[in-house]
Amino acid sequence: MGIEMRLHLIDEESLNFLLNLHWNEMYVQLEKGLLREKRPPKDTKLSRSFDIDAESDILDLMDQAVGEGRVIDVLKMQKNHSLLLLLMEWASFGHWESWEGRCFIYLEQAIGNPIEHVDDMYDELCWEKVNENLRIIGEDQFAKDVCENWMKRREALGETLDEREDPHIMPTFEAHDKAARKLHHAVNRQNCVQILGREHLDAKDWGHGNWNLKILLEASD
Q1: How far apart, in Å, are the Cα atoms of 39 and each of 10, 49, 133?
Q2: In terms of domains, do 70 and 22 share one?
Q3: Average model confidence (pLDDT) across the chain
Q4: Who has the most CB within 10 Å: 25, 106, 135, 191?
């Protein structure tokens, strides 16, 4: 149905733990599953890769990139943004995701303004506004507003809202309600770093400001 937007919620302490391990030490411990207790607990309302899958993805990239020394130093030397993104996923509490086409509804409702282009949904200023506004409005109200927004858009297009005529009405309504609630939950979660991106986006372009992956690997110690 389209490309997905994804918002990872990173536990900075867990990420720093990985980045300061010796390259070979991290490889061996991941291979033996010894780092699982260091992974932050999964947020039950969000999605996250299984431990074994996250470990496998990281090990696959490490096999393609021989290194010595601390993980962060190897990543900087190689400018290995893809591996850094996988380490962030490992060090996350979970992620929120939704199809880009639907994200227009959620983000426009959150910021109170229309979004002209899909790329604008990933703009740092847009997400500053999303965070600001969703910390004021309650989850129930936001989900209700999103669903009403969706229904008004359907009516404007001359589409029916009668589930007897379109059996997809209720499942779609419920999907919007669920996605809106999860977005509200993710944005309001404390003590984590938000890393935003989308499918097929170059890893170096994930994240905003000092947490942009390109900046992280180019920053001096």
Answers
A1: 11, 12, 30
A2: yes
A3: 94
A4: 106
